[in-house]
Write a sequence for this structure.
């Protein structure tokens, strides 16, 4: 059972700078079967001297450097560890410099010269010092380096780093050339005294120089070699910035690079068979083999993972059950308007999601499309708010499991309005050969409503709010228009010397952005009577009334289809009631309605025009669905100011009815 050394042990060759240095082993004992793990720690002896990179060091220090300035010195290396490693530095006695020994994060030592008394080049041009490195052995081992200091004239400004310490984290598998950090220093001097060169500090270990490269012009520190977390977890890199003056100014900074572990080591499994072959009658629980698993990685990278196969037991889950999307009309076709987001906690194909637009409404498939892989909803055509305001659809999210699981998400798309429709004038009708002339009686007072401009805007909301302004008029001071009503009023009382014919141009503007507008032209006559109306009416062929043809075909259809006398009589009764109700409504509307929107000629309520003798006026009433007309004519009145003499005359023609009413001084308003 004795454990013997089979060859000479060199701790530095086995473990390098790692401490403690140990060799592990396992011992199997049979009868009874037991496994023992053991380790042999290799202890260090002081068998190595400290070593400086070179036997001499040369420094150039300006005489203007103030007391307290620090100058890093090259560090000695000692492969021993613990107390036997490099422990301290000593400096030969001198009147200007002291030695400051500091410890790095890993416990190694480095030295810096500290100027205690300012230099004077005229008094002493150079200094010679001796730096001694000592380890902690008994007796201690040492190494020496000669330091030659040249005292030169000053460079006024030394470089200054924007920060004294830089930090970075790099994965151990980072490829060569990857940027670690970019250090930056500035120098207020001009010319060569302000040009900065970056370099490693003199006490930077050789291992660090092998792993990292520094660009002397840009200050970029990049990975040069292969980092290994298992070897070193943190690098402390000392860099300096030096200008190009005759006496270079120097600044120093430190870069801490943390190495992040990656799973770059496979587990190692050791199987020790101690019971082979296994008898067929071996009892349950019999030990067959011993297994030992190790992994050099750290934390989670060093655990042993047992994989659990996935079952499609989770349906896709959307971040929202429904989406409300608002899209401006007149959009560009093909734009994405929504990304339906869903997740599935399953793995592999069970988590592979596909998106489908369910065709509930057949028009939806022609207007919208969805990307089956990422759920992006696209708008294929340009939408029109005036055509359709809202679209509703259902998006199905399905995984790739067997059987697949699915979730439905509702999507509502609302088309918001743009001001893309100018106001449309209904009265007076634009682009028509018929001339609409409104009549106002002479002497009408201020505020008398003459007519009204009627317009609509196909847009919605504020975009459809129409305002009316008087753009142009024969007499701008005679008429005014309501800003929001479109009603045209007399601005003052009409006088005898006023022009008899007036043309008004009304500007109609909506309140959208940008503002859209249109115009309407209104003709107004100042008159007491209308010229020969009957002649004008006979010259104008009335347009066919579509309702007359519809009524005819309805009656014809009822006659052909109806087989029973009762149905025929009922249809005739309904038709008669409809005619009576229409004539009653027409009569009531002629008395109560101040204004109605005129349509084509067969919808005209009143036609006025022309002048005869001052004591006559004609008023013609046309019904909307027949050739019957009522004509009111006033005979010459007596000297009575009220014109009380009135008479009535009915023309024998069935198409006209003349009624003589009113007085010469009373003219009907356009609404009448």
């Amino acid at each position: 059972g004795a454990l013997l050394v089979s060859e000479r042990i060199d701790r530095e060759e086995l473990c390098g700078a790692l401490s403690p240095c140990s060799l592990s082993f396992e011992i199997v004992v049979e009868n009874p079967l037991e496994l023992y793990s053991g380790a042999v720690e290799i202890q260090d002896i002081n068998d190595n001297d400290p070593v400086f990179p070179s036997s001499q060091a040369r420094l150039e220090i300006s005489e203007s450097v103030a007391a307290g300035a620090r100058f890093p010195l090259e560090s000695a290396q000692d492969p021993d560890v613990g107390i036997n490693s490099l422990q301290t530095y000593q400096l030969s006695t001198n009147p200007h410099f002291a030695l400051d020994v500091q410890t790095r994060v890993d416990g190694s030592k480095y030295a810096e010269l500290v100027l205690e008394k300012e230099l004077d080049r005229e008094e002493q041009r150079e200094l010679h010092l001796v730096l001694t490195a000592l380890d902690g052995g008994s007796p201690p081992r040492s190494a020496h380096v000669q330091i030659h200091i040249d005292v030169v004239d000053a460079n006024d400004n030394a470089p200054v780093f924007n920060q004294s310490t830089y930090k970075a984290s790099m994965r151990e598998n980072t490829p060569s050339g990857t940027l670690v950090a970019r250090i930056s220093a500035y120098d207020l001097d001009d010319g060569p005294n302000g040009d900065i060169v970056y370099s490693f500090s003199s006490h930077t270990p050789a291992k660090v120089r092998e792993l990292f490269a520094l660009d002397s012009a840009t200050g970029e520190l990049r990975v040069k070699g292969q980092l290994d977390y298992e070897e070193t977890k943190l690098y402390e890199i000392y860099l300096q910035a030096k200008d190009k003056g005759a006496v270079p100014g120097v600044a120093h900074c430190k870069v801490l690079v943390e190495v992040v572990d990656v799973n770059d080591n496979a587990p190692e499994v050791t199987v020790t068979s101690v019971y082979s072959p296994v008898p067929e009658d071996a009892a349950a629980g019999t030990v067959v083999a011993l297994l030992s698993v190790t992994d050099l990685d750290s934390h989670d990278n060093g655990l042993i993972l047992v994989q659990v196969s996935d079952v499609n037991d989770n349906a896709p889950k959307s971040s929202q059950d429904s989406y409300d999307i608002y899209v401006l009309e007149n959009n560009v076709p093909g734009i994405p308007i929504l990304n339906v987001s869903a997740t599935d906690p399953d793995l592999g194909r069970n988590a592979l999601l596909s998106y489908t637009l369910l065709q509930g409404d057949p028009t939806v498939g022609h207007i919208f499309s969805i990307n089956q892989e990422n759920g992006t909803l696209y708008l294929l055509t340009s939408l029109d708010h005036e055509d359709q305001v809202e679209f509703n659809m259902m998006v199905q999210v399905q995984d790739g499991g067997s059987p697949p699981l699915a979730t439905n998400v509702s999507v509502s798309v609302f088309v918001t309005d743009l001001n893309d429709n100018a106001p449309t004038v209904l009265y007076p009708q634009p682009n028509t050969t018929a001339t609409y002339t409104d009549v106002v009686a002479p002497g009408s007072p201020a505020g008398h409503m003459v007519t009204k401009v009627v317009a609509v805007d196909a847009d919605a909301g504020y975009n459809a709010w129409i305002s009316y302004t008087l753009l142009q008029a024969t007499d701008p001071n005679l008429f005014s228009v309501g800003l929001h009503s479109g009603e045209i009023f007399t601005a003052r009382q009409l006088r005898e010397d006023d022009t008899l014919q007036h043309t008004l141009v009304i500007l109609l503007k909506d309140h959208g952005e940008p503002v859209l507008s249109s115009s309407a032209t209104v003709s107004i006559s100042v008159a007491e009577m209308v010229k020969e109306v009957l002649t004008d009416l006979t010259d104008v062929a009335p347009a066919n009334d579509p309702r007359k043809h519809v009524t005819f075909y309805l009656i014809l259809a009822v006659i052909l289809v109806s087989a029973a006398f009762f149905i025929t009589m009922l249809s005739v009764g309904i038709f008669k009631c409809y005619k009576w109700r229409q004539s009653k409504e027409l009569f009531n509307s002629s008395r109560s309605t101040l204004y109605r929107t005129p349509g084509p000629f067969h919808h005209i309520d009143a036609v006025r025009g022309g002048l005869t003798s001052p004591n006559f006026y004609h008023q013609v009433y046309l019904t909307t669905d027949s050739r019957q007309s009522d004509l009111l004519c006033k005979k010459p009145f007596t000297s009575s100011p009220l014109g009380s003499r009135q008479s009535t005359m009915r023309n024998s023609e069935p198409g006209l009815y003349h009624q003589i009413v009113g007085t010469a001084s009373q003219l009907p308003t356009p609404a009448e």
Notes: Helices lie at 11-15, 206-211, 364-367, 533-539, 546-561, 565-592. Residues 11-41 form one domain. The chain has six helices and 42 strands.
